[in-house]
Amino acid sequence: MTTTELSPTSTLEELESVYPGARRALFRNFHLGGCASCGYRHDETIAALCARSGGIDPLEMLARVREGHEADQRMTVEPTDLATELAEGGVRLLDIRSGDEYEAARIEGAHLFSQPLMQEILATWPKETRLVIIDHRGERSLDAATYFAGHGFVHARCLRGGIDAWSREVDSSIPRYDLEPS
Prior knowledge:
The chain contains 9 helices and 5 strands; from the N terminus they run H-H-H-H-E-H-E-H-E-H-E-H-E-H. It folds into 2 domains: 3-74; 76-169, Oxidized Rhodanese, domain 1 (3-Layer(aba) Sandwich), CATH 3.40.250.10. It has helices spanning 12-18, 22-30, 46-52, 58-74, 79-88, 99-104, 115-124, 141-150, 162-169, and strands at 76-77, 91-95, 111-112, 130-134, 155-159. It is an alpha/beta fold. Strands 1-5-4-2-3 form a 5-stranded parallel sheet. It starts with 11 loop residues before the first helix and ends in a 13-residue tail after the last helix. It is elongated.
């Protein structure tokens, strides 16, 4: 399915397959999908969700999700572009993976994220700091970058594809790995 094929009769599953950040955009714009009281089913249509959520215009909802997707794209940096930026200097890397993952495979100079580090960043780092958030495959880092952007960090971004993409596209000496299902 493509963006032009989405319509009010599309399901939320179809919406999320075209726009992976749709849940974030729906919550940010309409307080939908973020908790049990405002949740939705993936087989529900956009029109049905809009109707039961106070009569939201489905076309407005689709427009807001598209805008959110474009904003997500602007917060994402390609691995090769990050390599260039790191060579030029001035970028701070925050690795939000577990300590074991960090020890097994990391980008040189990345800081392992922790609560004390988060408090330090929020309290003392300049809001103009160029931050790039790293996770395993780029699935959670956008949420973290959005969090920092919400706290005024105007250059918070995430690494597209995480350390896995970095290993494939920039530095093959960094081992790739798969996580055991929890």
